[in-house]
Amino acid sequence: AGKTVAWVGDGNNMANTWLQAAELLDFTVHVSTPGGYEVDQAVAGIRSGSSYKVFKNPMDACKDADLVTTDVWTSMGFEAENEARKKAFADWCVDTDMMRAAKPDALFMHCLPAHRGEEVEADVIDGPQSVVWDEAENRMHVQKALMEYLLLGRL
Q: Nearest 5°: phi and psi at 32?
């Protein structure tokens, strides 16, 4: 509760999930997307706009954030848009300047796989603030629990 997450990039399913979590867990998401790639509140399934703020400039979204996160610019099913997306998202690559704008102890997350040099600089994803491998490991355990539940009907 009370923390700030900066979402930098596409207003996709991952952005929607962060927004849903913010409503449930009482934190704020600073969203910055290029024009035409914004979050759709109805698709996201969020009830109000009180748990997030929209920023045109990704640096402003990252200012004083506790966590900076992003996702690939071209999700599955949008491969035909790859070149257009690379141009549209060029200023939304999470870089060391964005991480410096966040709090000094801010973490970086990415749900992986990542494209170093596109949505995130190598110095960020491979740097000391990155927790992407812990995030991936946690996701693996959740997926195992879901499979057990779906296969056996119990935990």
A: -135, 120
